[in-house]
Write a structure and sequence with these properties.
Layout lengths: L1 H14 L6 H21 L6 H28 L45 E14 L2 E8 L2 E8 L7 H9 L5 E9 L14 E11 L8 H4 L7 H6 L8 H6 L1 H4 L3 H22 L4 E2 L5 E2 L11 E4 L8 E5 L4 H9 L4 E9 L12 E10 L5 H21 L1 H10 L12 E4 H10 L12 H15 L3 E5 L22 E6 L2 E8 L4 H10 L8 H5 L8 E7 H8 L21
Parallel strand pairs: 3-5, 6-10, 12-13
Antiparallel strand pairs: 1-2, 1-4, 2-3, 4-5, 7-9, 8-9, 10-11, 11-16, 13-14, 14-15, 15-16
Helix pairs in contact: 1-2, 1-3, 2-3, 9-11, 9-12, 9-17
């Protein structure tokens, strides 16, 4: 029995010899014969159950060893360049390093432009290889550019495609960068797995421009919805997912997913629409310093640094700007009348919530007013309705891509936007059973609950809450004339979360100093700020908007880190 078992194992090894390199195969067979000799010396009779189990385990181990050797042999045969006798050798192979040696005049095409009207068109694509599979004398590839994908096919005909060319294509690692040439055709059935489902590419040339190393995670795992899918529920199988820290540690790969591609194109659209809307209303874009000599908003949440620390005679304390507010107000005093800025904002807040970052992009605006701070709200109303309309109209494919991975309800908003006095918001909360201070600020919980109540009553996810209590606003906020307990201020909310805090600013230096003292602020520490209003300051108001928070809430996402390309929070400084 012992000899018979080892003869069977010997036959297994022989059948695998054609895929093994010679050295590994010889070593595997040598190990088998050594074991056979040991067994012969140990026993000439019947094998025990224990011995049979050991023998079976050794057989399995030998088989796996042979398979590994076979794989090493296959890897040694990796094709990067065609053989000289291949009739289509000019049509495939790795390119050399591109170092700006030539300008060919060649035109590269975009995948998103391909549709049934492109049938018969010759195209050249610079793209990534998303997936590939070989089947006999054919290969099927999925090519990707940004959010767009298309199927590419190769069939051996020895005119445009050879068998070695098919093998070359299927050996290219996923996520490698390719140049693929071919002819667009319309398949009999739609390619449901690709964004360009109406067409496919009949490949006649393929070259690898940059080969990808093994990935830290599979993109197919990174594109799954966070919630349990219908397939998982039906089969009871839990598919792999990529956690947030792994994504952020490898953000340059995570950003390749269709949802992330879409999120940051939408974010770009928010900036463009913000700029377009305000410039159409005669606003001037400004750029203010981010290195300043003192905290721009006071408090402890400031990043401090030594300015010119290598030069003792120039060394002084400085910090990163928490807000461009002071400089916006100076611009108004300089008669620029209406200004805005898109730039970084820094907050040294030890906060790990889903909506806070230590660095974010601020969308800030400031403007003169003639009579009432509602003039600011009029501009913001027009701005956000225009922005929401523009996002829905211009970014429909991107919204669909986000919806696929992170399902959300489309944002509901009114024309004109709902403006709710703070007192009325308090009454809605009290009527719903919440114990809230009518002259205090709202908590995160009460803001979210008020958002729910507003949605039920007014059918909107976007609204403005104005006339906040004096105790809930900074010292520079203008008090109301009819009741000094309230201010000419406002917050704006999306889906029950605040995105904007703004107000009419105090432009009178004496009242500003009075309010600073009432709030316990040493006037001497803000003397330069107060003095900026002593030479004629027009009434004005403005606000600041967090770009990442706007995108997060518009898309109904659950964490602001999804809308920050390389987020900075209290623990994360890389990549």
């Amino acid at each position: 029995q012992t000899r018979s078992a080892f003869r069977r194992c010997d036959r297994v090894a022989r059948t695998r010899r054609h895929v093994m390199d010679e050295e590994a195969a010889a070593k595997a067979m040598e190990d088998l014969h050594v074991q056979e000799e040991k067994q012969d010396n140990a026993s000439d009779g019947q094998m025990s159950k224990s011995a049979m189990k050991k023998l079976a385990a050794k057989e399995a181990k030998a088989q796996k060893k042979a398979e590994r050797a076979g794989k090493r042999g296959q890897q040694a045969q990796l094709i990067t360049q065609p053989p000289e006798d291949d009739p289509v050798k000019e049509r495939y192979g790795d390119t050399g390093l591109i170092q700006s040696q030539t300008v060919s005049g060649r035109t590269w095409d975009r995948i998103e432009t391909l549709d049934a009207k492109s049938d018969g068109k010759e195209v050249m694509l610079r793209c990534r290889l998303q997936t590939s599979r070989g089947k006999g004398k054919s290969a099927f590839l999925v090519l990707r550019q940004g959010c767009s994908t298309v199927q590419a096919v190769l069939f051996v005909d020895d005119v445009n495609v050879s068998k070695t060319m098919v093998k070359y294509a299927t050996q290219i690692p996923k996520e490698s960068v390719l140049d693929v040439g071919g002819v667009v055709s319309v398949p009999e059935a739609a390619i449901q797995s690709c964004s360009q489902s109406e067409v496919e590419i009949a490949v006649n040339s393929i070259r690898c421009v940059s080969r990808a190393d093994p990935l830290p995670f599979e993109l197919s795992d990174a594109v799954r919805p966070e919630s349990v899918t219908e397939e998982e529920a039906e089969t009871g199988t839990q598919f792999a997912r990529v956690n947030q820290d792994t994504r952020l540690d490898n953000r340059f790969i995570d950003l390749r997913t269709p949802a992330n591609q879409a999120i940051f194109r939408i974010q770009s659209g928010v900036c463009a629409l913000f700029r377009e809307s305000l410039m159409s209303q005669n606003f001037v874009e400004i750029h203010t310093p981010k290195l300043i000599g003192g905290a721009s908003e006071g408090g402890a949440s400031v990043f401090k640094l030594e300015y010119m620390s290598d030069y003792p005679s120039l060394k002084q304390s400085a910090c990163l700007a928490q807000s461009p507010q002071l400089y916006k107000q100076m611009a108004i005093c300089a008669d620029l009348e209406k200004v805005f800025e898109i730039g970084p904002v820094f907050r040294a807040e030890n906060s790990f919530t889903h909506r806070h970052l230590c660095e974010f992009t601020g969308l800030d605006m400031e403007m003169q007013i003639n009579e009432h701070y509602f003039e600011v709200l009029d501009v913001l109303d027009n701005l956000f309705v225009t922005m929401f309309d523009g996002l829905n109209e211009r970014f429909a494919p991107e919204l669909k891509a986000v919806q696929h991975q992170y399902p959300f309800e489309p944002l509901e908003y009114l024309r004109p936007s709902l403006r709710l006095p703070f007192e009325e918001g308090i009454k809605m909360l009290q009527d719903a059973g919440f114990d809230v201070d009518p002259l205090g600020d709202l908590s995160t919980e009460t803001e979210r609950e008020l958002g729910r109540l507003v949605k039920e009553k007014y059918k909107t996810d976007f609204y403005m809450l104005h006339r906040y209590p004096l105790a809930a606003r900074p010292f520079y906020t203008m008090p109301t004339a009819d009741d000094p307990r309230y201010t000419c201020s406002f917050d704006i909310f999306i889906r029950g979360e605040e995105i904007i805090s703004g107000a009419q600013r105090i432009h009178d230096p004496e009242l500003l100093a009075e309010r600073a003292e009432a709030c316990g602020i040493d006037v001497a520490t803000i003397a330069s700020y107060i003095d900026s209003f002593r030479y004629g300051a027009p009434p004005h108001g403005g606000c600041g908007v967090g770009l990442e928070r706007v995108v997060m809430l518009f898309l109904g996402l659950n964490n602001i880190r999804k809308t920050s390309m390389f987020p900075r929070d209290p623990k994360r400084l890389a990549p």
